Fold:
Amino acid sequence: MSTAIDTPAAPATEKLTKKALTADHPTWCPGCGDFAVLNIFYRVLEKLQYPHENIVCVAGIGCSSRFPYFMNTHGIHFIHGRALPLATGISLSRPDVHVFVFGGDGDGFSIGGNHLNHAARKNIKLTYVIMDNFVYGLTKKQTSPTSPIGFKSKTDPTGSIDRPINPMRQLLASGATFIARTHAAQVKHMEAMFERAILHDGFSVVECLSECVMFYSGAFDDSTPRKGGTYELIDETQHDVTDETAAFKMAENLAPGKFGVYYQVNRPTKNALEQKWIDETQSKLGGVSQKEILKKRFEAMR
Amino acid sequence: MSSVSAPSSSSAPTSLRNAVIRFAGNSQDGIQSIGGFLARLAGRTAQEVMTYMTIPSTISGGPSIFQVHLGSGEVLHEGDEADVLVAFYKHSYQNHIGSLRKGGICFYDTADMTAEDLNHDRGIIHIGVPFTSATVEAVGGSTRDRGKNMFVLGMVCAVFNLDKEKLVGIVSRQFGRKDESVLRNALLAFDAGFAYQVGDVEKFSFVPGEAPGSHRISADGNQMMTLGLIAAGVRYGSAYPITPWSSIMETLRVELPKYGGIYVQAEDELAAVAMTIGAAFAGHLAITGSAGPGLSLKMEALGYASMAEIPLIVVNVQRGGPSTGLPTSVEQSDLMQAIYGSHGDSPRIVLAPKDVEDCFYIALEAGKLAKKYSCPVIILSDQALSSRIEAFEEPDLDKHWVEPELDLATRPADFKPYPLDAITRHAPPGAKMAGGKYPIATGLEHDEMGHPSGSPKMHTLMTAKRRNKLVQLSKELPLPEIHGDTTGDALVVGWGSTFGPIKESVTRMRSEGHKVGAIHLRHLHPMPAGLGDLFKQYKHVVCVEMNDSGLYGYGQLATLLRASLADPRIQSVCKTDGLAFRIREIVTGVEKIMTQA
Ligand SMILES: Cc1ncc(C[n+]2csc(CCOP(=O)(O)OP(=O)(O)O)c2C)c(N)n1
Ligand code: SF4
Structure:
């Protein structure tokens, strides 16, 4: 469809409401923790009021990765585990848009594990929400990299035997510049974490415990007060979020662990560093046209 | 130079149309750089040139050659046999004396060889020259023999009466960037070589080439591909290093910032293709690239790009496979992978450049096709094209330059990301949607709005939509030009870097009285419609390819042609020695098929 001809007038900029942001009805199982994540994300976007057209939602594959279909924003539903590099391509080439990535623990820590390390160390400007349910949902109950030892799944019928990864430690080691942990049943806290993550200038990641009622119900009872668990918040008057060693220490015991911002520092983003290189390179060229630059290059090959 | 008889001692230089000079030494001797200087000189003096080199795949060095085919007419191949061999070591002599033609001339370094090492079988003229000691002497007592390549260059310049002033100019420009003493030493060695009395050996001089219509440049295939991508409007992309692709990404990394773009070194090829799809989804023309193993890693995402209809350029510089295979040799065995390498029916366009110059134009075409058909376009280059230097006319940028554009216009209320009656034109992030409904790019089968759909009918319709883009392109493609006879005993069909050797072979066969023609396919998927009728004009159709003849006796292109045209006359001449085709290999292969009933 040609867009060059007959370009319609841009709609008047209107307030970004939950209604405007809502797309298809989510296909998640009733009771799935991911519903709460979606609702809180609507709410945070309503609060931040970014231009509607400048919001992009990106995901890989998994139940949680269905997220972009339920958002009426520009979106891309990619392949399993590769959402972060895809989002990197968007973020680096489009400084004008806000990039949000959603996915599960398998997508992020298993098949996409290496990408997490590299997007984090490069400090790509984007926000990544990992909906951690300790199990593979979409493929119906296999062991996930965060499943605790002893968890009975279809691939470990007598109980998982592999040491689970510790998401907070993993993220701290990756070089991410904003790392927080929250819980889908704690909507106020989740909202605060999302907002701080989005406002952070750099690679921000939030691990959000989000129960899979279908294949691992009760996984997070120990951090759900109404089920007798404890939800212990990080006291930032005691924890210096820029102290990496303290953050590692706090991450040591993650069952059920603390919730809140583990770590936040300011380090130049790759986006900014690349732009700096572009600016420096271009300033040396004295404003000649791009075509002239290439012509000169050919002249040197004569 | 094969037309020249054994040297006589007459003083007037013998005039010749072309010559093949092979430098054989170790990779650290700088023979690549002197070969490169000669190639550049050819570019400047209206001569044709084609170079060929081998490099060891280990860093620490090892035997290496650089061969330069210089000529005044069209130079289409790297040369079956050398006319002149310059041997830096005894091992170089032993390994390469066989590639010197009967009666050819061999210069060898007396530092590493004595008269007893020489083989006088085939009337070869041996000339011992103290490359090493003469260089040390010229440069001034240093024990380093680093300048001996420059000594040899000076000597070759004198023997072939090359334009000394221009050659020194090229050398100075190259070394001038380094510190002064480097250039001074290089020129001292060069002058010593130029002045060295090689003794009773014939001097040659090239017939002047035709005056070029415009400026001529010399470059290798990876350089031209890179510059073609920039001219096509590419500003973003990502890749992971692998031989022989790396120099494209290295150059893009350094060049793109000048044009406001960014080239990212990714953590692996999976990430590289994903980042590139990200930039393409964001509305840019973007490129990723690799060589065989890396292309394999990109396959899942390339299937996604077909499904989600993302425009994208993918360069694959083929090398010898499978697996790590022969990383620094040439092969054309990724054709099937390029066309069919993903799971599911995932149509995409596959192109191949025919020579170094064409690397530029194929990149331009890939950009246009990716945008027009909103799908991945794979360019199959190869190791030979990547590194060999040729001279040709400078591209006219006023004609070819494509200004990059990011189309953020508001999309109309009836916008559909995947219309069934039109080619997809994505609305990138930043584009407002007049209807208030924002699009999603997806790898799930989907309806016209991008909603996931498991409907059998929709999958059938959408599969056809994606396939029909290629059907449409196939009808738009011109039939390839025929070189030689338009009807006759055999049609030779090639693709990629075999263009020159096939053309030369057909010329030779015709001069021997055969009625043969050749076509070269730049568009491999889809192929132009109408090839079947063209084939009917010949008794035999012979596909010449650098890949294995497989289980059933046909190379990859031949298999595709047989499958699509069901024409039993299609036969194969294949080889898998990791080297470019020699003329005689093609001639013998085609003649053998022509003698079949
Ligand atoms: C390359 C590839 N391998 C495997 C799969 C199958 N697969 C889809 S989602 C998934 C894991 C889902 O778990 P998680 O990422 O934790 O997300 P959840 O469904 O729990 O939200 C797997 C293995 C796939 N789609 N692609
Ligand atoms: S399977 Fe689990 S994760 Fe998936 S939608 Fe159902 S409850 Fe949620």
